[in-house]
Design a protein that fits this description.
Length: about 300
Amino acid sequence: MLRVVLAQPRGFCAGVERAIEIVERALKKYGPPIYVRHEIVHNRHVVEDLRTRGAVFVDELDEIPPGAITVFSAHGVAKRVEEAAAERGLPVIDATCPLVAKVHNEGRRYAGQEREIVLVGHAGHAEVEGTIGQVPAKVHLVQTVEDVARLQVTDPEKLAYITQTTLSVDDTKGIIAALTQRFPSIVGPNVRDICYATQNRQQAVRDLAGQVDVILVVGSRNSSNSNRLREIGQELGRPSYLIDDADALQPEWFDGARTVGLTAGASAPETLVQGVLNGLRRFGEIEITTQDGVAEDVRFRFPAQLTDA
Ligand code: SF4
């Protein structure tokens, strides 16, 4: 018999729930099609489900017809995207997670102090592109401690850092330590930018790693926080696999394993976790327990246009 320990917490965070519900409420209030710039959250199943209900996902605003309702994804957008939408008169509903918007505000505050900004994040990630485009200052992107050593800044006395919300707490700790060592005057936010959901899911995986032989993370390849969960499991010496759904399960992963830890990234729905449990049952009997963990009760407000939907 395989013992399965479910991580607590796992799966949807408040920012993802809000973003999905924004598209659902917009579909209900205005009817399809609703245009969404970028994947609303980084999960293939969520995007496909909303697509079948009338959401149209586009990469750029010029793919959206004049006057069509336009939703910005949870990851946020650059100022130029907001301006382009306003110029075209697109009615916009902003699903940017309030915790991402908070990082934008921090960046703008530091820019107002005439500081250059160091953004700790992953190149090419939608959130990072949005944040760089929201801060009216020179922004240096660093991804590793080595990047810190290579940084060329105008004035080391006029620097601030901010971070992507979904990085590994440990990785950012090392990079921030390298930044403060090289630039002792650098300032950063009092409370870390890594969001509560990322921290809680990472801590749950750390705890799981002490109890299980193999770790499964339900999430899509392009989901930053899901990738970090898999990396943490792997770094702690447990073979760890990122899977979109039960179809990706490979029986050989469980050879010799007695206990499996199961978690899900912040953009992965619980139905997929339940599907993975069913998939594991195909290999034999399982016994399920749930980890003790943090109970989350964070909720964010909806944009004014949708409070009545
Ligand atoms: Fe917001 Fe954190 Fe969820 Fe990202 S992972 S949407 S920052 S709550």
